[in-house]
Design a protein that fits this description.
The protein contains 13 helices and 13 strands. 42% of the residues lie in helices and 15% in strands. The chain folds into two domains: 108 residues, 2-Layer Sandwich (Enolase-like, domain 1), CATH 3.30.390.10; 233 residues, TIM Barrel, CATH 3.20.20. It is globular. The protein binds calcium ion.
C-alpha cells in the first residue's frame, strides 16, 4: 500500500482538513490547528507531502519521525507539529479503515463509549459579567453538565482586570450551583502572586480546575502556583511533543496535562504524551477546540486512557462543519458518543467540503 497524494484544504471557518490518498482507494482524513491556516496548509502541501508520497501509510511512527526530523529546522514547536498532526491523524484513520477497527481499539480498548464534555466558553476579557452569565446559561440549556470560562486576555495581560474575573467566576458559580463543575482559564493572564491569591479565592467558591494561570513559558512560576494551591492546575496547549511535556511535568509541576491532538503532532505523539502523564500520575484533559475531526481524534485517545475520567473540552457544535460529514458526531445530554466505525468513524462529503473551501 502506498500514499499517492496529500491535500490540506482551508475551509471558510479557517479549519484545515487534510486528506491522505492511497493506491488502494482508502482515503484518510485529519485536521490541523486553524491558527495561521494558510501557512500550515502550505506546510502540509509543500514540505510534508513530498516526504510521504510513495511511502506505506501503515508505517505511521516511521513516517512521524521522517516528517519531524526532515523538517526539524522549520521549527519543533508550532507550525511544524500542527502540520504533521493533520497527516498523522489521517494515517491512523487509514490504519483503522484497513484493519476494520475504530482507532480506540487499535490503541488498546475503549473504557467509555460516551464522554462527558465540558462547555469551553471563551472571550471573558471582552464581556461583562452579565454577558458571560447569559452565555453560560445558553450552554446549560444545550445539556452541558460541566463548564469552563476562559478570559482570553491576549496582549492585555497581565493582571488586567482581576476584580472583574473574580466577579465573573462568582456570578457563574451562583448560576450553576455546586453540582456542575466550574473551571477557570486565565489564558496566561496573571502574575504568580495574583494567580495564587485569585486561586485561593476561587477555591473558597469551589473551582474544578485552574488553567494556565501564568505565562506558558514560565515553568517556575506555574510550579509556584501549583505548589501553593489545592485546585488542580493545568497547562499544555502551548506545548508540542513528548519532550516538552516531560519538562512541563517535571519543571512546571502541573496536575493536569493538556496536549492538543491537532497541535502536538497528532495521535501518535499524543498517545506517547498520555502515557508519559500516566507515569507521573497526572490527569489527562486535552485541549481541543475543533468540533469535528479534532474532537473525534481526541475522543478516540481519551476513551482509550483509563485515567481520562474528567469531562473533556468542547466548544460546542458547529452546524456548518457538522454538515460536511455523512454522519456527524452525536452530542447528547452533555456527552459525545465515541465513534465506533473503522478509523476515526467520520466520513467527509467531498462535494460539500469543496463548496465550503476558502
Ligand atoms: Ca485554554
Amino acid at each position: 500500500m502506498k500514499i499517492t497524494n496529500v491535500q490540506a484544504t482551508v475551509l471558510k471557518t479557517m479549519s484545515i482538513f487534510v486528506q491522505v490518498y492511497t493506491d488502494e482507494g482508502v482515503v484518510g482524513i485529519g485536521e490541523c490547528s486553524p491558527m495561521n491556516s494558510a501557512v500550515i496548509a502550505n506546510f502540509v502541501n509543500t514540505a510534508l507531502k513530498p516526504l510521504v508520497i510513495g511511502e506505506n501509510p501503515l508505517e505511521i511512527d516511521k513516517l512521524w519521525n521522517k516528517m519531524t526530523f526532515r523538517t526539524y529546522k522549520l521549527g519543533v514547536q508550532g507550525i511544524q507539529q500542527e502540520a504533521i498532526a493533520g497527516i498523522d491523524i489521517a494515517l491512523w484513520d487509514i490504519l483503522g479503515k484497513v484493519a476494520g477497527l475504530p482507532i480506540h481499539t487499535l490503541l488498546g480498548g475503549c473504557y467509555r463509549d460516551k464522554v462527558m464534555m465540558y462547555a469551553s466558553i471563551g472571550g471573558g476579557a471582552d464581556m461583562t459579567v452579565i454577558q458571560m452569565v447569559n452565555r453560560v446559561e445558553n450552554y446549560l440549556n444545550q445539556g452541558f453538565k460541566a463548564i469552563k470560562i476562559r478570559m482570553d486576555w491576549g496582549a492585555m495581560r497581565q493582571d488586567f482586570d482581576v476584580k472583574k474575573d473574580y466577579e465573573m467566576f462568582k456570578a457563574v458559580k451562583e448560576l450553576i450551583g455546586d453540582d456542575i463543575p466550574l473551571s477557570f482559564d486565565a489564558n496566561n493572564g496573571y502574575s504568580v502572586s495574583t494567580a495564587i491569591s485569585q486561586g485561593r479565592r476561587f477555591e473558597q467558591l469551589g473551582i474544578y480546575h485552574y488553567e494556565e494561570p501564568v505565562a506558558q513559558y514560565d515553568y517556575a512560576g506555574i510550579a509556584k502556583v501549583a505548589d501553593a494551591l489545592d485546585v488542580p492546575v493545568s497547562a499544555g496547549e502551548h506545548e508540542y511533543t513528548r519532550w516538552q511535556f516531560r519538562d512541563l511535568i517535571e519543571q512546571a509541576k502541573v496536575d493536569i496535562i493538556q496536549p492538543d491532538v491537532v497541535k502536538c503532532g497528532g495521535i501518535s505523539e499524543m498517545v506517547k504524551i498520555a502515557v508519559l502523564g500516566s507515569v507521573y500520575n497526572k490527569h489527562f484533559v486535552p485541549h481541543q477546540t475543533q468540533p469535528t475531526i479534532g474532537t473525534a481524534a481526541n475522543l478516540h485517545i481519551c476513551c482509550a486512557m483509563p485515567n481520562a475520567n474528567r469531562p473533556q473540552e468542547f466548544t460546542g457544535r458547529n452546524p456548518q462543519l457538522d454538515d460536511l460529514f455523512i454522519e456527524p458526531l452525536i452530542f447528547d445530554d452533555g456527552y459525545i458518543h465515541v465513534p465506533q466505525k473503522p478509523g476515526l468513524g467520520l466520513e467527509i462529503d467531498e462535494e460539500k467540503m469543496k463548496a465550503f473551501a476558502l
